[in-house]
Every structure is written in structure tokens, then in C-alpha cells.
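Subgroup meeting minutes
Present: P.N., E.W., G.H.
Scribe: E.W.

1. P.N. recapped why we're keeping a running log of single-chain structure predictions: easier to compare across weeks, and new members can see raw inputs and outputs side by side.
2. G.H. added today's entry (377 aa).
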Amino acid sequence: MESIMAQESPKNSAAEIPVTSNGEVDNSHEHGFNRDLKHSLPSGLGLSETQITSHGFDSTREGVIEAGTYQGSPAPPLPSVLSPSRVAASQLAQQGSDLIVAAGGQRTQTKSGPVILADEIKNPAMEKLELVRKWSLNTYKCTRQIISEKLGRGSRTVDLELEAQIDILRDNKKKYENILRLAQTLSTQLFQMVHTQKQLGDAFADLSLKSLELHEEFGYNADTQKLLAKNGETLLGAINFFIASVNTLVNKTIEDTLMTVKQYESARIEYDAYRTDLEELNLGPRDANTLPKIEQSQHLFQAHKEKYDKMRNDVSIKLKFLEENKVKVLHNQLVLFHNAIAAYFAGNQKQLEQTLKQFHIKLKTPGVDAPSWLEEQ
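Output recorded in log:
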């Protein structure tokens, strides 16, 4: 029995698992073995940190080396050498295929597989930032130019003939707006008078039926008030047509021209701002740093000069057409207004109706609504 135990003692001692005082397995030998293996591998390969999984000497399974990120510093190899199994060797070969060792021992990682070259994609945020930068710079230059002109320090480009026409247009617009307000007031008052005449005519007609002794007198007054109300409605139609035409001229045609004038003035301010900037750069020194700035400023000045010339030409054309249209419209409307007022106060009903026919004015019949779309069909 003692001889048998002596023969089995080496195997039992090798398979013995030490236990700590708390009853846990002592893995210090295994950790030490892993540490020796880590230091034993060549440092120049830059391999990942290794971890050894052992299953005892009785196990028939081969050793497996699992790879993880190695964060330690390279150390000289130890004398002990571990020969990994076939599976571990294949994993190490796969890990090392993506690595190239430089001459100085520095690790260089290369990617396996095809390399895709993509075109540079523009960043929308950078484009917006560039637009904001250009807008801020342009606003700063224009604001500085406006302040300089207000203070009398900066020079401005003036087209005397065009500026005079613009001033006349603005002054006429104010006068036409005043005429429009007065005509609207007259229309409101005339409408109230016509409404009162209708009510008075109805009251006279009612009394004419109920008062036999004053039947004729109430009847005459009723007919007169009704006739005046009818003529008042005809005059009211002419005045409203006059108001609509003048309103279109003032608030649409003239206003559209003034919008073009505002764009022209903005272009003029930008032109003067970049002109002043270019003049300041030309007065300064010319060297390698300032020449690109001067060239860029010259390019921007030329672009704004073209814009300014185009807007000035547009304003001139619109002012010319506006003057022709204004004369034609106001001529017809003033003739209409005069003839209608004169015929009404002269009591010439036929002349008043003829005036409306001359200008193709159709009066809306009182108490009759517009036909529905089904009736129009």
C-alpha cells in the first residue's frame, strides 16, 4: 500500500488544488502562470493582452489564448517559452495579419480589405455659418456707411435727376393719399344722406296715404326725395369708382415703384460702402498681405457696382411708365368726378346716367344680392 501511494503521489501533488482559509480556490499559481506567459511573448508584435484558460492536466482539451487590448509597456522576454496549440496559433496569425512592425519597433496598424475613397461632403452647418459671416460683414459695412453719411463724414453717390424724380413721386403720393381720404369721407357722408332721403321719402309716402287733405303735398315730397335718393346712388357709384381707381394707383402702382426705389437705395448704400472700403485699402501700403485684400475688395466693389447700375436703370424705367399710367388714369377719373358732381347738383338725371355709361360703371340694384354660381351657370 505504501509503495502504491508513493507511485501515485506525483500525480496527486500535480492535480492538487490549494484552498485558502476562507474555503476559496487559490488562483495565485494560475495568475502567475498567465503573467509569465504575457512577458514571455515578443513585445515587438504588439499583441493583445493574453489570458490563459487551463482545465487541468487531466483534460484532453487544448489551451486557448483569448485576446484583449494590451495596455502595458513592452518588457524584455523571459526565458520561459510557451508553445501554443494549433487553435491559438491560428488566432495569433489572424491578429498579427493586420499589424506591420516598423524598423524602430513602432507598431503600425493597417486595415485589411478594400479602401473606399469618398468625396468630401459639405457640412450644412459650415455653409450656414459662412452665410451668417458674410451677412454680418455686409451689414456692418452698410451700417458704417449710413452713420458716416448721417454725420456728414462719408461721401455718397447721387444721381440728381433720378433723386429729383423720386422726391416728386413721394410728394405726389402724399397728396394723392389726402385726396383719397377726402373722397372716402364724401362717399360716407353721401351714403348717409341718400339713406336719410330714402327714409324721408317713405315717410312722406305713408302720410300721403293716411292724410287725405294733404295727399298731394306729401306725394310731391315723397317723389322728390326718392328721385334725389336715386340720383344720389348714381353719384355714389361714380365716386366709389373714382376712389377704387385712385386707391389702385396710390397703394399698388406707386407703392410698387417705391419698393423698387427702396431696393435701389439699398444697392446704392452697399455700393458706396464697398467703394469706401476699396479707397481706404488703396490709400494704405501695398505688400504681400494687402494685395489679396485689395483684389478681393475690387471684385466685391465691381459686383455691387453692377447691381447698383441695374437697380438705377430699373427705377428709371418704372418711373417713366408710372408717369404715363398716372396721367392716363387720373385724366379719366377726374373727368368722371367732375361730370358726375355737376350733373347731380344741376339735377340733370340724364347727364348723370350718361356719365356712368361713358365710363362703363354698373350700379348695384338696391336689395338685390349677387347671383349664385348656379344661376350664373
